[in-house]
Structure formats: structure tokens, C-alpha cells
Amino acid sequence: VVKIVNDELTKIMGARHEDLNLSGSKPVSIMLVGLQGSGKTTTAGKLAVFLRKKGKKPYLVPADVYRPAAIDQLKKLGEQLSVPVYPSTVDMDPVQICQEARIAAQQEKCDILLLDTAGRLHIDEDLMTELCNIKDKVKPSDILLVADAMTGQDAVNIAKSFDNALDLGGIILSKMDGDARGGAAISIKSITNKPIKFIGVGEKLSELEPFHPDRMSSKILGMGDVLTIIEKAQSMVDEKKAVELEKKLRKSEFTLDDFRDQMVQIRKMGSLKDLLSMIPGFSKNKQFKNLEVDEKEFIRIEAIINSMTSQERRQHTIINGNRRKRIAKGSGTSIQDINKLLKNYTQIMKMMKKINKGGMRGLSRGMLPF
């Protein structure tokens, strides 16, 4: 029964992931539309990060002249990401901005313009007229509505209004890290019949993911999302380093430097609780719902290892009582924290030795370090 429901939900939400439409002469334009507060400007920055990872050269265009804060925000995002931004001002015409930005993007040798258009607190005729004028003059290759997933039915009504006026190419659901759990995705797709192309899953600029209907369906039904975990890991891990690490583990040469590097990689993947929620069955677990994950533990581990000498990181057995006091003082932690870290590290080393000796059978003879 669950499989049938899962398959039907996947069909409703689009069956497969749909990419951005980037057809047309370069530079192409992607028009971002939506109401004020939907996360449109931040999404423009996130999309720039995503496109750059794909080898593209994005160009940010602030076209919301009614909110100076929106122009400033996009300029700051551009500085933060080292992505060029068109120098818009509040006294310029939005249509003119979008037209002139194309020439500027060509000069910067950029291939994709991200047009951050004006939003309103509510849909009105003036807003739609302006957006239609931009569409007619610029002829964007894709028009994406940024809708706040947490607004539920309102997001559906907003999507319908924008689609009627602009014939949307797709939708980006922002704030999908909340409790909405995909209900908005089902409703918006079924009402507009337009693909959901991306979802915003956190505040970080790297936290924009392509929308996969099958994975969202599994998440809604509490079946987990292991593929997304794998993708996150693959995007963060350097292949050469991974091979080197494997060799070290096989030779039992895994140092505290390596341990720290792994903690950094895990932290880059996002919130630990979010990662655990993607594991099948985990989110249904009552204990998980009440679980308080201390995300600062990773920072403490890094601080402790960074306070060690290079020799201590290579040879943890030399860390005696006096050294532990010095490390605790240098890292702003306690001796108990040092002891806990060294115990966990030692258990991992023992576990790896058992695996190297007898594979999984070797591991089964010992205890896992958690």
C-alpha cells in the first residue's frame, strides 16, 4: 500500500526532476518572481552558487527598485560570493535595468542573468504589469516563482495568480526545512501543472537542492532520503583525499588530523539532525523527535584538535595529564571533553583494525563506538 501511495505521490509531483531552461543566445536570463518575504533575493544568491558549481558564470541583477534594502542585500550577496552584480539604483526603471544588465553581463563574460524582480506584500495589478513588461522586453529563458512553502494554501493561490499572468516555467519552494513536509509541493504541482525545480532547505547559500519528486514522496511518507545524503557527501568530498583516507584507514594510520578533517566535512553537509531525518525510519522514531543534537560538538572537537601540537595529533598516546590540561585551556574546553574525544578516536581505531583483520566478521566480534 505504501509503495502504491508513494508512486502516486511521485506522479502528482512530476515523476522526475526538471532542469532549468537555459536555451537561447547567451547570456540567457532567468526571471525570479514572488511576493515580498518569500525569500526571493536569498534564492537568487543560492541559485548563483548552484549554477557556479555547474560551471556557469552567473550575473545578479537587482530589479526591485521599491526596496533599497533588496538592492543592498543582493549587492552584499554578490560581494560575499564574488559574483558580479549590476549597479542598480532606486531611481532607475526596472525594465531598463534588466535590458541594460544584459549588455553589462556580456562585458563581464557571464552566461546567465538572475533577475531579482520586485515583490509586494500582496498581488496587485501594478506588480503584474511591471513583470509582464520585463518578460516582453527581456524574453527570459525561464521564469521561476519563489514561493514560501510554510504558507500552505496561500502558496498555491499565489502560484496560480503568477502562472496566469506570466506562464511560469517552474517553481522554487523556499523554507522547506520547516514543518511543511511537502504538502505545498503536492498542491502547487497539481493546481498549476508547473514543475517544482528547486527547494530551499536551509539558510546557508549552499542549501538549495534540485527537486526530486520521488525523494520528496519518500520524505512525506517517512521513508527517508538516502540519495540526498549521498549527493551531499559526494559534493563535499575531494576524490583524491577520499582515496588517501581509505589507504590510511586500511593501514591504521588514521590520525587526529584526519579525524578533525572528517568532522569539518560532516559539518559542511548541514545540520546533523537534518541529515539523520533523511535516514529511513529515523524520523518516525519517538526518541529522534525529542533528540537534542548538539551541533557545537563539532566545533569543540575542532578546537581541541587545533590546540594540540602536530606531534600530539600524530601520536595521541603521548597526551598525558599535563598535556591534557594545556589542550583544555587552549581550546576553552574541559579535561573531560579531551578524554571523551580521545576515547572516541581510540574506539574508531580499534574498530578499523577489526575490519582490516576480518572484514565485517572482525567488526562483529567487537563493539561499535556508538
Structure description:
The protein is α/β, with parallel strands linked by helices. It folds into two domains: 2-223, 3-Layer(aba) Sandwich (Rossmann fold), CATH 3.40.50; 231-364, Orthogonal Bundle (434 Repressor (Amino-terminal Domain)), CATH 1.10.260.30. It has 17 helices and seven strands. The chain has helices spanning 2-12, 40-53, 68-81, 94-107, 125-138, 153-166, 183-192, 213-220, 226-236, 239-250, 256-268, 272-277, 286-289, 296-306, 310-314, 321-331, 335-364; strands at residues 28-33, 58-63, 112-117, 142-148, 170-174, 196-200, 208-210. A seven-stranded mixed beta sheet has the order 2-3-1-4-5-6-7, with helices on both faces. Helix 6 (153-166) links the parallel strand 4 and strand 5. Helix 2 (40-53) runs parallel beside helix 3, helix 4 (94-107) runs parallel beside helix 5 and helix 6 (153-166) packs parallel to helix 7 (183-192). The longest helix has 30 residues, at 335-364. The chain is elongated, with a radius of gyration of 25 Å. The protein starts with a helix and ends in a 6-residue tail after the last helix.
